[in-house]
Write a structure and sequence with these properties.
This protein is an alpha/beta fold and 294 residues long. Helix content is 61%, strand content 13%. Helix 2 links the parallel strand 1 (81-87) and strand 2. The chain is elongated. It starts with a helix and ends with a helix. It comes from Arcobacter caeni.
Length: 294
């Protein structure tokens, strides 16, 4: 059995850890509140712009005039090269939050490569960058300080290279993967086809013209709408992922605090047993000494 001093040092160490994890939980809770507000404000706009672009893509798909329509609106069922854009955290201590995204990306890579499709990775977040770099997997693009502090302009700058490669026919499809916020206790992996624009949200109604814009301006307007769609979806993915990260870290730190308390209780019991054993030993030695003097 460990001596009293060793046990006391362990108890002090675990209590210090408990204070740290409790403080980290409170910090994550406060950050989550702010990030959730930002996420909720952006969600309605993201939903509306997705619906608008999906509606346009659905109308374009009926025309099938690829010579006059942006590639972003032409569905491709046989892509040869795919860009996977994924978001992870810059920091750890958030349970399985980062690994859930990394596993999903790894699974997609395997599935696409099994079909003979070339996959390129573009990472936002240090944890994802570090993991795939350690695995020896090349990253087409990487940024390590964006997911922890999302900014619209920086998000647009990051995704710009992806869009340019798609428009220049270097890639045929762009997929975005991130761990999003579902509620205070749950995060949800989200995998979306960013380009070509998905038809999933489209509810096309039979109206007179395909688009209510002048023919001379249609390409410019569509490109502008597409850029806004891509930029904002990247920005929203970063915000949603950050909210989920704070939620996951809050849960992880709450569990760590609970475990630390249980460890302190266990060590306290061990300390009391060792103390009682030491007292008993001393009493026996005293009594034995008294008996020996008789």
């Amino acid at each position: 059995m460990a001596n009293l001093k060793e046990i006391k040092v362990k108890i002090g160490s675990v209590k210090n850890t408990q204070k740290t994890t409790k403080a980290m939980k409170l910090v994550s809770s406060a950050k989550l509140t702010r990030t959730r507000q930002l996420s909720e404000q952006a969600r309605s706009y993201a939903k509306k712009i997705n619906e608008v672009l999906s509606d346009i893509a659905a109308r374009v798909s009926k025309v099938q005039d690829e010579g006059n329509i942006s590639r972003a609106f032409i569905q491709n069922d046989a892509p040869k090269t795919i860009d996977i854009v994924f978001v992870t955290a810059d920091k750890g201590l958030c349970g399985g939050f980062n690994m859930a995204t990394i596993k999903t990306v790894s699974k997609l890579i395997s599935e696409y490569e099994a079909k003979g499709i070339k996959v390129r990775l573009r990472a936002a977040g240090r944890k994802g960058v570090d993991f795939f770099s350690f695995q020896g997997i090349a990253l087409e693009q990487r940024v390590s300080d964006l997911s922890s502090a999302p900014e619209y302009d920086r998000a647009a700058e990051f995704i710009h290279a992806v869009v340019e490669d798609f428009r220049n026919k270097v890639t045929d499809k762009v997929v975005i993967v991130y761990n999003g916020f579902l509620n205070m206790l749950t995060q949800e992996i989200r995998v979306r086809d960013l380009l070509p624009i998905s038809l999933d949200l489209a509810e096309v109604k039979d109206t007179g013209s395909m688009l209510d814009i002048e023919p001379d301006d249609d390409e410019e307007v569509l490109n502008e709408l597409t850029d806004k769609y891509i930029d904002f979806n990247m920005y929203y993915a970063l915000i949603d992922s950050l909210a989920a990260e704070h939620s996951a870290r809050m849960q992880a730190m709450e569990a760590a605090t609970k475990n630390a308390k249980e460890k302190v209780d266990s060590l306290t019991v061990e300390y009391n047993k060792a103390r009682q054993a030491a007292i008993t030993t001393e009493l026996i030695e005293i009594i034995s000494g008294v008996e020996a003097l008789k």
